[in-house]
Amino acid sequence: MNIIETLLVSFALAADAVAISICYGLSLNNNFKKSLIVGFSFGIFQAIMPILGYILGDTFNHLIRSIDHYVAFSLLVFIGSKMIYETKNNKSDKYNDLNFKSLIILSIATSIDALTFGIAYRFAYTTNIFFTSLIIGLVTAILCSIGVKIGNTFGSKYKNVSQIIGGVVLILFGIKILIEHLFLI
Length: 185
Prior knowledge:
Number of strands: 0
Structural class: mainly alpha
Distance between the termini: 25 Å
Helix content: over 70%
Shape: globular
Order of helices and strands: HHHHHHH
Number of helices: 7
Radius of gyration: 16 Å
Number of domains: 1
């Protein structure tokens, strides 16, 4: 896998994480450090999962493929619903600070595709998975940090509305993942 292919894969794998970072940014106070933390969390999971998938190889491929979409769907719907619920019950200020539990759950949910990529990588390429994973993680971290800032720009103006929109978007991403895998779109 050459560097151009690696970058293209990196952007593709980062897409869901970036969209969710924008949603996360909708409800965070403007803070550069928080953008970096969110970017780092998504990036580190996107970097680790292909390595884990590579190690797991074909041993667990049939098990992972059969449930990955259900796991991602459940996690995204749960977090999105929780964001909407807390806005309706005047608990939206909770998201002004990073909720590390939610951030880790979202990082895992958006990196399941990277795990599957790692499994496929084992059989398709002879190049070093560690270098590829490093690039995937760096691209994801940078794009997600920018995504948080973009979301924050809009979120600071439309606090509760933006949090509801963010929750709805998370739920829609979960539904999209489920539909794609069930109907192989």
